[in-house]
What does this fold into?
Amino acid sequence: MNTIIEPFRIKSVEPIYFNTEAERALIVEKAFYNPFLIHSTDVMIDLLTDSGTSAMSSNQWAGMMQGDESYAGSPSFFRFEKTIQEITGFPLVIPTHQGRAAEKILFSILGGKGKYFVSNTLFDTTRANIEFSGAEGVDLICEEGKHPSIPAPFKGNMDTTLLKKFIEEKGTANIPLCIITVTNNSGGGQPVSMQNIKEVRAICTEYKIPLFIDACRFAENSYFIKLREEGYADKSVREIAKELFSYADGCTMSAKKDAFANIGGFLAMRNEDLAQHCRNLLIMTEGFPTYGGLAGRDLEAIAIGLNEVLDEHYLQYRIRSIEYLSNKLIAAGVPVMQPAGGHAVYLDAKEFLAHIPVDQYPGQALVAALYVHGGIRSVEIGSLMFGKYDEHKKLIPAQLELVRLAIPRRVYTQSHIDYVAEVIIEVFNKRDEIKGLTITEEPPMLRHFTAKLKPIESK
It folds into this structure.
Protein backbone atom coordinates (compact mmCIF):
# COMPACT_ATOMS: atom_id res chain seq x y z
CA MET A 1 0.00 0.00 0.00
CA ASN A 2 1.61 3.27 -1.14
CA THR A 3 -0.71 5.86 0.41
CA ILE A 4 0.11 6.68 4.03
CA ILE A 5 -3.04 8.22 5.48
CA GLU A 6 -3.09 10.66 8.37
CA PRO A 7 -3.47 8.59 11.56
CA PHE A 8 -6.06 11.00 12.95
CA ARG A 9 -9.41 12.59 12.11
CA ILE A 10 -9.98 16.36 12.07
CA LYS A 11 -12.32 17.51 14.85
CA SER A 12 -11.85 21.27 14.83
CA VAL A 13 -10.71 23.66 12.10
CA GLU A 14 -9.57 27.26 11.75
CA PRO A 15 -9.73 29.41 8.61
CA ILE A 16 -6.95 30.25 6.18
CA TYR A 17 -7.13 33.84 4.98
CA PHE A 18 -6.39 34.29 1.29
CA ASN A 19 -4.69 37.31 -0.24
CA THR A 20 -3.24 38.20 -3.64
CA GLU A 21 0.34 38.28 -4.87
CA ALA A 22 0.17 42.07 -5.21
CA GLU A 23 -1.01 42.37 -1.61
CA ARG A 24 1.74 40.07 -0.40
CA ALA A 25 4.41 42.09 -2.22
CA LEU A 26 3.36 45.13 -0.19
CA ILE A 27 3.14 43.11 3.03
CA VAL A 28 6.68 41.74 2.75
CA GLU A 29 8.02 45.19 1.90
CA LYS A 30 6.37 46.66 5.02
CA ALA A 31 7.80 43.74 7.03
CA PHE A 32 11.31 44.63 5.77
CA TYR A 33 11.63 41.25 4.02
CA ASN A 34 11.66 39.45 7.37
CA PRO A 35 9.04 36.69 7.77
CA PHE A 36 9.02 37.09 11.56
CA LEU A 37 7.57 40.58 11.09
CA ILE A 38 4.59 39.41 9.00
CA HIS A 39 1.22 39.07 10.74
CA SER A 40 0.11 35.43 10.82
CA THR A 41 -3.30 36.30 9.35
CA ASP A 42 -1.46 37.45 6.22
CA VAL A 43 0.09 33.97 5.80
CA MET A 44 -1.67 31.22 3.85
CA ILE A 45 0.60 28.25 4.68
CA ASP A 46 2.74 28.86 7.75
CA LEU A 47 5.95 26.81 7.72
CA LEU A 48 8.02 29.30 9.71
CA THR A 49 8.47 26.79 12.51
CA ASP A 50 7.17 23.53 13.95
CA SER A 51 7.67 24.96 17.47
CA GLY A 52 4.42 25.36 19.37
CA THR A 53 2.38 25.23 16.16
CA SER A 54 1.18 21.62 16.36
CA ALA A 55 -2.45 20.59 16.69
CA MET A 56 -3.12 19.13 20.12
CA SER A 57 -5.24 16.00 20.44
CA SER A 58 -8.64 15.67 22.08
CA ASN A 59 -6.89 13.80 24.91
CA GLN A 60 -4.51 16.70 25.44
CA TRP A 61 -7.37 19.20 25.55
CA ALA A 62 -9.24 16.96 27.98
CA GLY A 63 -6.10 16.63 30.10
CA MET A 64 -5.79 20.40 30.29
CA MET A 65 -9.14 20.53 32.08
CA GLN A 66 -7.58 18.36 34.82
CA GLY A 67 -4.64 20.71 35.27
CA ASP A 68 -4.11 21.52 38.92
CA GLU A 69 -2.91 25.11 39.40
CA SER A 70 -1.46 24.72 42.90
CA TYR A 71 1.66 26.83 43.27
CA ALA A 72 3.69 23.98 44.79
CA GLY A 73 3.36 20.20 44.62
CA SER A 74 0.66 20.05 41.95
CA PRO A 75 -0.36 16.52 40.89
CA SER A 76 -0.01 17.77 37.31
CA PHE A 77 3.72 18.21 37.93
CA PHE A 78 4.10 14.69 39.28
CA ARG A 79 2.38 13.23 36.20
CA PHE A 80 4.70 15.36 34.04
CA GLU A 81 7.75 14.24 36.04
CA LYS A 82 6.83 10.54 35.95
CA THR A 83 6.28 10.59 32.18
CA ILE A 84 9.69 12.16 31.50
CA GLN A 85 11.42 9.81 33.94
CA GLU A 86 9.85 6.78 32.22
CA ILE A 87 10.78 7.91 28.70
CA THR A 88 14.27 9.27 29.36
CA GLY A 89 15.47 7.43 32.47
CA PHE A 90 16.63 10.75 33.97
CA PRO A 91 15.56 10.95 37.62
CA LEU A 92 15.72 14.74 38.04
CA VAL A 93 13.16 16.75 36.06
CA ILE A 94 12.89 20.55 36.03
CA PRO A 95 10.06 22.23 34.07
CA THR A 96 10.63 25.48 32.19
CA HIS A 97 8.35 27.68 30.12
CA GLN A 98 10.13 26.61 26.91
CA GLY A 99 13.37 25.10 25.66
CA ARG A 100 15.42 28.29 25.54
CA ALA A 101 14.68 28.87 29.23
CA ALA A 102 16.22 25.48 29.99
CA GLU A 103 19.23 26.46 27.89
CA LYS A 104 19.53 29.83 29.61
CA ILE A 105 19.61 28.21 33.05
CA LEU A 106 22.07 25.47 32.06
CA PHE A 107 24.54 27.71 30.23
CA SER A 108 24.37 30.46 32.85
CA ILE A 109 25.65 27.90 35.35
CA LEU A 110 28.17 26.04 33.16
CA GLY A 111 29.23 28.79 30.74
CA GLY A 112 31.52 31.77 30.97
CA LYS A 113 34.44 33.36 29.20
CA GLY A 114 37.04 30.90 27.94
CA LYS A 115 34.60 27.96 27.89
CA TYR A 116 33.58 25.93 24.81
CA PHE A 117 30.43 23.91 24.22
CA VAL A 118 30.87 21.34 21.46
CA SER A 119 28.02 19.94 19.41
CA ASN A 120 27.07 18.28 16.14
CA THR A 121 25.29 21.57 15.36
CA LEU A 122 23.78 24.12 17.74
CA PHE A 123 20.52 25.82 16.86
CA ASP A 124 20.00 29.57 17.12
CA THR A 125 18.81 30.10 20.70
CA THR A 126 21.17 27.42 22.02
CA ARG A 127 24.15 29.18 20.48
CA ALA A 128 22.88 32.59 21.61
CA ASN A 129 22.53 31.48 25.23
CA ILE A 130 26.04 30.00 25.12
CA GLU A 131 27.48 33.20 23.69
CA PHE A 132 25.51 35.37 26.13
CA SER A 133 27.32 33.58 28.97
CA GLY A 134 30.64 34.55 27.38
CA ALA A 135 31.40 31.04 26.12
CA GLU A 136 31.71 29.82 22.53
CA GLY A 137 29.64 27.21 20.71
CA VAL A 138 31.52 24.93 18.31
CA ASP A 139 29.88 22.81 15.60
CA LEU A 140 31.58 19.56 14.64
CA ILE A 141 29.21 18.18 12.01
CA CYS A 142 30.29 15.07 10.11
CA GLU A 143 31.60 15.47 6.55
CA GLU A 144 28.42 14.03 5.00
CA GLY A 145 26.38 16.75 6.66
CA LYS A 146 28.23 19.47 4.75
CA HIS A 147 26.93 18.37 1.35
CA PRO A 148 23.16 18.96 0.97
CA SER A 149 22.65 17.13 -2.33
CA ILE A 150 24.50 13.90 -1.41
CA PRO A 151 22.25 11.46 0.49
CA ALA A 152 23.52 9.64 3.57
CA PRO A 153 21.50 7.95 6.32
CA PHE A 154 22.84 9.88 9.33
CA LYS A 155 24.04 13.29 8.19
CA GLY A 156 23.36 14.75 11.63
CA ASN A 157 26.26 12.86 13.23
CA MET A 158 29.09 14.54 15.08
CA ASP A 159 32.61 14.15 13.68
CA THR A 160 34.26 12.16 16.47
CA THR A 161 37.78 12.62 15.08
CA LEU A 162 37.34 16.39 15.22
CA LEU A 163 35.81 16.08 18.68
CA LYS A 164 38.87 14.33 20.10
CA LYS A 165 41.18 16.78 18.36
CA PHE A 166 39.26 19.78 19.72
CA ILE A 167 39.29 18.42 23.27
CA GLU A 168 43.04 17.86 23.07
CA GLU A 169 43.60 21.39 21.75
CA LYS A 170 41.39 23.26 24.23
CA GLY A 171 41.68 21.04 27.29
CA THR A 172 38.99 19.18 29.22
CA ALA A 173 38.75 21.90 31.87
CA ASN A 174 37.57 24.39 29.25
CA ILE A 175 34.78 22.20 27.84
CA PRO A 176 31.98 21.93 30.39
CA LEU A 177 29.51 20.12 28.13
CA CYS A 178 29.09 18.23 24.88
CA ILE A 179 25.67 18.53 23.22
CA ILE A 180 24.10 16.31 20.57
CA THR A 181 21.07 17.83 18.83
CA VAL A 182 18.52 15.20 17.68
CA THR A 183 17.50 15.59 15.00
CA ASN A 184 20.11 18.06 13.74
CA ASN A 185 17.89 21.05 12.99
CA SER A 186 20.49 23.49 11.65
CA GLY A 187 21.99 20.65 9.59
CA GLY A 188 18.82 19.99 7.63
CA GLY A 189 16.75 18.06 10.18
CA GLN A 190 19.06 15.08 9.71
CA PRO A 191 19.16 12.24 12.26
CA VAL A 192 22.01 11.09 14.48
CA SER A 193 22.81 7.37 14.63
CA MET A 194 22.88 5.40 17.85
CA GLN A 195 26.43 4.32 16.97
CA ASN A 196 27.52 7.94 16.77
CA ILE A 197 25.92 8.70 20.13
CA LYS A 198 27.75 5.72 21.64
CA GLU A 199 31.07 6.89 20.19
CA VAL A 200 30.57 10.43 21.47
CA ARG A 201 29.62 8.99 24.87
CA ALA A 202 32.86 6.99 24.96
CA ILE A 203 34.94 10.08 24.17
CA CYS A 204 33.10 12.14 26.78
CA THR A 205 33.68 9.40 29.36
CA GLU A 206 37.38 9.23 28.47
CA TYR A 207 37.79 12.98 28.98
CA LYS A 208 35.25 13.29 31.81
CA ILE A 209 32.99 15.70 29.90
CA PRO A 210 29.22 15.48 30.52
CA LEU A 211 27.02 14.72 27.51
CA PHE A 212 23.58 16.29 27.08
CA ILE A 213 20.96 15.68 24.41
CA ASP A 214 19.03 18.55 22.82
CA ALA A 215 15.92 16.39 22.65
CA CYS A 216 13.40 18.59 20.82
CA ARG A 217 12.80 15.91 18.17
CA PHE A 218 13.92 12.77 20.00
CA ALA A 219 11.00 10.66 18.74
CA GLU A 220 11.62 11.51 15.09
CA ASN A 221 15.33 10.71 15.53
CA SER A 222 14.49 7.42 17.23
CA TYR A 223 12.20 6.45 14.36
CA PHE A 224 14.99 7.16 11.85
CA ILE A 225 17.24 4.84 13.86
CA LYS A 226 14.56 2.15 13.64
CA LEU A 227 14.33 2.62 9.86
CA ARG A 228 18.00 3.01 8.97
CA GLU A 229 20.32 1.53 11.58
CA GLU A 230 21.20 -2.15 11.73
CA GLY A 231 19.88 -3.96 14.78
CA TYR A 232 16.96 -1.64 15.55
CA ALA A 233 14.23 -2.63 13.08
CA ASP A 234 12.50 -4.89 15.61
CA LYS A 235 12.77 -2.51 18.55
CA SER A 236 10.00 -0.10 19.50
CA VAL A 237 10.61 3.62 19.22
CA ARG A 238 10.10 3.86 22.98
CA GLU A 239 12.88 1.32 23.54
CA ILE A 240 15.17 3.14 21.10
CA ALA A 241 14.53 6.48 22.80
CA LYS A 242 15.26 4.97 26.21
CA GLU A 243 18.58 3.62 24.93
CA LEU A 244 19.44 6.96 23.28
CA PHE A 245 18.96 8.83 26.56
CA SER A 246 20.87 6.16 28.49
CA TYR A 247 24.15 7.35 26.95
CA ALA A 248 23.63 10.93 28.16
CA ASP A 249 23.97 12.72 31.48
CA GLY A 250 20.97 14.91 30.83
CA CYS A 251 18.88 16.73 28.25
CA THR A 252 17.13 19.94 27.43
CA MET A 253 13.87 19.89 25.53
CA SER A 254 11.43 22.29 24.00
CA ALA A 255 8.12 20.50 24.48
CA LYS A 256 6.77 22.69 21.67
CA LYS A 257 8.17 20.16 19.17
CA ASP A 258 7.87 16.41 19.79
CA ALA A 259 5.45 16.80 22.72
CA PHE A 260 2.78 18.52 20.55
CA ALA A 261 2.45 21.29 23.14
CA ASN A 262 1.91 24.97 22.42
CA ILE A 263 4.28 25.99 25.22
CA GLY A 264 6.69 24.35 27.65
CA GLY A 265 10.03 22.64 28.07
CA PHE A 266 12.26 21.00 30.64
CA LEU A 267 15.71 20.11 31.90
CA ALA A 268 16.34 16.52 32.96
CA MET A 269 19.55 15.05 34.37
CA ARG A 270 21.28 12.64 36.75
CA ASN A 271 23.56 15.02 38.67
CA GLU A 272 21.91 16.20 41.89
CA ASP A 273 24.37 19.05 42.51
CA LEU A 274 23.84 20.50 39.03
CA ALA A 275 20.08 20.03 39.36
CA GLN A 276 20.06 21.98 42.62
CA HIS A 277 21.92 24.88 41.02
CA CYS A 278 19.41 24.78 38.15
CA ARG A 279 16.44 24.77 40.54
CA ASN A 280 17.84 27.76 42.42
CA LEU A 281 18.15 29.77 39.21
CA LEU A 282 14.76 28.50 38.05
CA ILE A 283 13.10 29.98 41.15
CA MET A 284 14.62 33.37 40.35
CA THR A 285 13.68 33.42 36.67
CA GLU A 286 10.86 30.93 35.96
CA GLY A 287 9.00 29.92 39.11
CA PHE A 288 8.82 27.21 41.74
CA PRO A 289 10.45 23.89 40.70
CA THR A 290 7.12 22.09 40.40
CA TYR A 291 5.72 24.46 37.81
CA GLY A 292 8.72 26.29 36.28
CA GLY A 293 6.81 29.01 34.49
CA LEU A 294 4.03 26.71 33.27
CA ALA A 295 0.39 26.36 34.21
CA GLY A 296 -0.71 22.97 35.50
CA ARG A 297 -2.75 22.49 32.34
CA ASP A 298 0.42 22.88 30.26
CA LEU A 299 2.18 20.21 32.31
CA GLU A 300 -0.74 17.87 31.62
CA ALA A 301 -0.69 18.55 27.86
CA ILE A 302 3.06 17.88 27.69
CA ALA A 303 2.82 14.60 29.62
CA ILE A 304 0.10 13.32 27.28
CA GLY A 305 1.87 14.58 24.16
CA LEU A 306 5.16 12.87 25.06
CA ASN A 307 3.38 9.53 25.03
CA GLU A 308 1.39 10.28 21.88
CA VAL A 309 4.49 11.16 19.87
CA LEU A 310 5.86 7.64 20.40
CA ASP A 311 2.97 6.14 18.41
CA GLU A 312 4.69 4.51 15.44
CA HIS A 313 1.72 4.97 13.10
CA TYR A 314 2.03 8.70 13.70
CA LEU A 315 5.81 8.66 13.18
CA GLN A 316 5.49 6.66 9.97
CA TYR A 317 3.03 9.24 8.65
CA ARG A 318 5.19 12.14 9.85
CA ILE A 319 8.40 10.97 8.20
CA ARG A 320 6.68 9.86 4.99
CA SER A 321 4.82 13.17 4.61
CA ILE A 322 8.10 15.13 4.77
CA GLU A 323 9.62 12.67 2.30
CA TYR A 324 6.61 13.11 0.01
CA LEU A 325 7.23 16.86 -0.33
CA SER A 326 10.97 16.38 -0.71
CA ASN A 327 10.54 13.81 -3.50
CA LYS A 328 8.17 16.06 -5.46
CA LEU A 329 10.76 18.84 -5.38
CA ILE A 330 13.66 16.57 -6.32
CA ALA A 331 11.67 15.26 -9.31
CA ALA A 332 11.32 18.87 -10.52
CA GLY A 333 15.05 19.54 -10.17
CA VAL A 334 14.75 21.74 -7.08
CA PRO A 335 17.93 21.53 -4.94
CA VAL A 336 17.02 20.24 -1.49
CA MET A 337 18.77 18.64 1.46
CA GLN A 338 18.84 14.89 0.83
CA PRO A 339 17.54 12.66 2.20
CA ALA A 340 14.44 14.30 3.69
CA GLY A 341 14.71 15.35 7.32
CA GLY A 342 12.30 14.55 10.09
CA HIS A 343 10.34 17.77 10.58
CA ALA A 344 11.07 19.96 7.57
CA VAL A 345 12.19 20.18 3.98
CA TYR A 346 15.32 22.28 3.51
CA LEU A 347 15.94 24.08 0.23
CA ASP A 348 19.58 24.59 -0.72
CA ALA A 349 19.40 28.35 -1.26
CA LYS A 350 23.02 28.63 -2.40
CA GLU A 351 22.27 26.29 -5.30
CA PHE A 352 18.69 27.47 -5.84
CA LEU A 353 19.79 31.11 -6.24
CA ALA A 354 23.31 30.58 -7.53
CA HIS A 355 23.35 34.09 -9.02
CA ILE A 356 23.04 35.71 -5.57
CA PRO A 357 26.28 35.88 -3.53
CA VAL A 358 26.16 34.82 0.12
CA ASP A 359 26.66 38.39 1.36
CA GLN A 360 23.32 39.22 -0.27
CA TYR A 361 21.56 36.53 1.78
CA PRO A 362 20.15 34.17 -0.88
CA GLY A 363 18.20 32.23 1.76
CA GLN A 364 16.35 35.31 2.94
CA ALA A 365 15.71 36.37 -0.65
CA LEU A 366 14.18 32.97 -1.32
CA VAL A 367 12.03 33.19 1.82
CA ALA A 368 10.62 36.50 0.59
CA ALA A 369 9.98 35.12 -2.91
CA LEU A 370 8.06 32.10 -1.60
CA TYR A 371 5.86 34.37 0.49
CA VAL A 372 5.11 36.81 -2.33
CA HIS A 373 4.40 34.10 -4.89
CA GLY A 374 2.36 31.72 -2.77
CA GLY A 375 1.75 33.09 0.73
CA ILE A 376 4.08 30.49 2.23
CA ARG A 377 6.09 31.58 5.27
CA SER A 378 9.41 29.82 5.81
CA VAL A 379 12.69 30.66 7.54
CA GLU A 380 16.30 31.16 6.45
CA ILE A 381 18.91 28.99 8.14
CA GLY A 382 22.08 30.43 6.69
CA SER A 383 24.20 33.54 6.87
CA LEU A 384 21.46 35.81 8.20
CA MET A 385 20.82 33.44 11.11
CA PHE A 386 24.37 32.24 11.74
CA GLY A 387 26.71 34.60 9.88
CA LYS A 388 29.31 36.61 11.81
CA TYR A 389 31.47 39.63 11.02
CA ASP A 390 35.24 39.82 11.04
CA GLU A 391 37.19 42.78 12.44
CA HIS A 392 36.60 44.65 9.17
CA LYS A 393 32.80 44.10 9.35
CA LYS A 394 32.98 41.68 6.44
CA LEU A 395 30.52 38.80 6.57
CA ILE A 396 31.83 35.40 7.65
CA PRO A 397 29.15 33.21 6.02
CA ALA A 398 27.47 30.20 7.54
CA GLN A 399 28.52 26.72 6.45
CA LEU A 400 25.18 26.12 4.69
CA GLU A 401 22.64 28.45 3.08
CA LEU A 402 19.30 26.76 3.66
CA VAL A 403 15.62 27.66 3.71
CA ARG A 404 13.60 25.53 6.11
CA LEU A 405 9.96 24.67 5.50
CA ALA A 406 9.01 23.31 8.92
CA ILE A 407 5.78 21.30 8.85
CA PRO A 408 3.61 21.73 11.98
CA ARG A 409 2.49 18.40 13.42
CA ARG A 410 -1.07 17.24 12.64
CA VAL A 411 -1.99 20.58 11.01
CA TYR A 412 -1.80 20.48 7.20
CA THR A 413 -3.23 17.91 4.77
CA GLN A 414 -1.76 16.45 1.59
CA SER A 415 -3.47 19.09 -0.58
CA HIS A 416 -1.72 21.82 1.42
CA ILE A 417 1.61 20.08 0.84
CA ASP A 418 0.88 19.66 -2.88
CA TYR A 419 0.25 23.41 -3.05
CA VAL A 420 3.57 24.11 -1.28
CA ALA A 421 5.40 21.96 -3.84
CA GLU A 422 3.71 23.76 -6.74
CA VAL A 423 4.68 27.20 -5.40
CA ILE A 424 8.32 26.21 -4.81
CA ILE A 425 8.62 24.72 -8.31
CA GLU A 426 7.10 27.83 -9.88
CA VAL A 427 9.52 30.08 -7.97
CA PHE A 428 12.41 27.82 -9.01
CA ASN A 429 11.45 28.12 -12.66
CA LYS A 430 11.73 31.93 -12.51
CA ARG A 431 14.54 32.10 -9.96
CA ASP A 432 16.70 34.41 -12.08
CA GLU A 433 14.25 37.25 -11.37
CA ILE A 434 14.96 37.17 -7.62
CA LYS A 435 17.27 39.85 -6.23
CA GLY A 436 19.60 39.71 -3.26
CA LEU A 437 19.03 41.61 -0.01
CA THR A 438 21.04 43.89 2.22
CA ILE A 439 20.58 44.50 5.95
CA THR A 440 19.47 48.00 6.94
CA GLU A 441 19.05 47.38 10.68
CA GLU A 442 20.04 44.53 13.00
CA PRO A 443 20.41 43.71 16.72
CA PRO A 444 23.71 42.33 18.10
CA MET A 445 22.31 38.81 18.77
CA LEU A 446 19.68 36.58 17.14
CA ARG A 447 19.40 39.16 14.40
CA HIS A 448 17.22 37.03 12.13
CA PHE A 449 14.21 37.54 14.42
CA THR A 450 14.07 41.34 14.05
CA ALA A 451 16.53 42.41 11.33
CA LYS A 452 15.29 44.73 8.60
CA LEU A 453 16.35 44.23 4.99
CA LYS A 454 15.74 45.66 1.55
CA PRO A 455 16.40 44.46 -2.02
CA ILE A 456 19.65 45.33 -3.70
CA GLU A 457 18.87 47.45 -6.73
CA SER A 458 20.31 46.42 -10.07
CA LYS A 459 23.24 48.56 -11.23
